[in-house]
Amino acid sequence: MNQAVVTKQWPVTDGVRKAMAVTLRGAEELIPRDEWEQKLAKSEATGVPLRIKLGLDPTAPDIHVGHTVVLNKMRQLQDLGHQVIFLIGDFTSMIGDPSGRNTTRPPLTAEQIKLNAETYRAQADKILDPSRTELRYNSEWSDRLSSRDMIQLTAKYTVARMMERNDFHERFKAGTPISIHEFLYPLMQGYDSVALKSDLELGGTDQKFNLLMGRHLQAEYGQEPQCILTMPLLEGLDGIDKMSKSKNNYIGITEDANTMFAKVMSISDTLMWRWYTLLSFRSEDEIAALKREIDGGRNPRDAKVALAKEITARFHSPAAADGAEQDFVNRSKGGVPDEIPKVALSGAPLGIAQVLKQANLAPSTSEANRLIDGGGVRVDSAVVSDKGLKLAAGTYVVQVGKRKFARVTLR
């Protein structure tokens, strides 16, 4: 292996130590730490910003707050003056990332990738400074690789090393098919680092193998190897499982301000501090001071409100965050929000379960009846306990739980 090594020792100043603290905040692992410290020191001494890469495959049309953990770290490093590269994996999406999979991931169509990529870019701009972000697509260089180039690339890694990867190893032991094209995924992701000459690559803990591949291939191609920074997977609203749409414990960054604020307020007081570390742009000193105030007797709700407003303002506006706070207060007091959906229904008198279903307040009449049994349904602020209730013609404010409302006009 032809690995380039930084031999000159650059002075570690207070500025470098501060940058190291920013790098390590909330991080899972930095590989190797001493090399990154020297990269930071060299950058400070020479005035040349480091190239920091984050690659995301546009496999879904939107991003939730859990995805923003690595984007937040990118923004922190961007604010230190470094060049961040937001890489959209339009080429690698056609292969399908096997990370954490026990089956072959179905590849996306070119049209799906294009639509999702446009959405990813718009959503990433809510966190990164677009004017200082290098936006790239890995099809730029991957589409140009010839058959000869691909053979030369695959020659730089062994099957034995590839099979050390947990998901491949487990699938092989279980007799689950592994397609040859899946071996190409980590190689192509690693080649992205060669093409971009990155100094640091970020990713979730589940991406460690792929990130290390980039470091390996850079050395094989005679470049100074990148360092690796893995970020933890954010726990969702339940505080147990990682944030996921399939678990319904997520906050989508395109959700309306009121819903976003209320969802943050629903997390536990313990989980709140983990979210502060991974999602807030407050300094660690500010967070520590706030925690001391809570430990000293201040209401934890105050800290949660501050976090909810910060996250809501980031994806909407400060004014929207203020409005969401007021909406949350009104709801907690049993009040009705100023703006609720208006629904016109026919068929009066109509059973309450049908009203809930047709007003999109419950997915089915059976679920509507379950909500009534649980005391979660109100009509004009009065709790409904009779599943046989029928509403005559008129206009009603119908509420399910704390957050779902509709002004129903029944004819």
Automatic annotation (TrEMBL):
It catalyses: tRNA(Tyr) + L-tyrosine + ATP = L-tyrosyl-tRNA(Tyr) + AMP + diphosphate + H(+). One of its GO terms (molecular function) is tyrosine-tRNA ligase activity. PANTHER family: TYROSINE--TRNA LIGASE, TYROSYL-TRNA SYNTHETASE. A motif ('KMSKS' region) lies at residues 242-246. CDD domains: S4, TyrRS_core. Keywords: Aminoacyl-tRNA synthetase, ATP-binding, Cytoplasm, Ligase, Nucleotide-binding, Protein biosynthesis, RNA-binding. Homodimer. Gene3D superfamilies: HUPs, RNA-binding S4 domain, Tyrosyl-Transfer RNA Synthetase. It is found in: Cytoplasm. It comes from Ramlibacter pallidus. Catalyzes the attachment of tyrosine to tRNA(Tyr) in a two-step reaction: tyrosine is first activated by ATP to form Tyr-AMP and then transferred to the acceptor end of tRNA(Tyr). Residues 350-411 form the RNA-binding S4 domain. SMART domains: S4. This is Tyrosine--tRNA ligase. InterPro entries: aa-tRNA-synth_I_CS, aa-tRNA-synth_Ic, Rossmann-like_a/b/a_fold, S4_RNA-bd, S4_RNA-bd_sf, Tyr-tRNA-ligase, Tyr-tRNA-ligase_bac-type, Tyr-tRNA-ligase_bac_2. Belongs to the class-I aminoacyl-tRNA synthetase family. TyrS type 2 subfamily. SUPFAM superfamilies: Alpha-L RNA-binding motif, Nucleotidylyl transferase. Its EC number is 6.1.1.1. Its main location: cytoplasm.
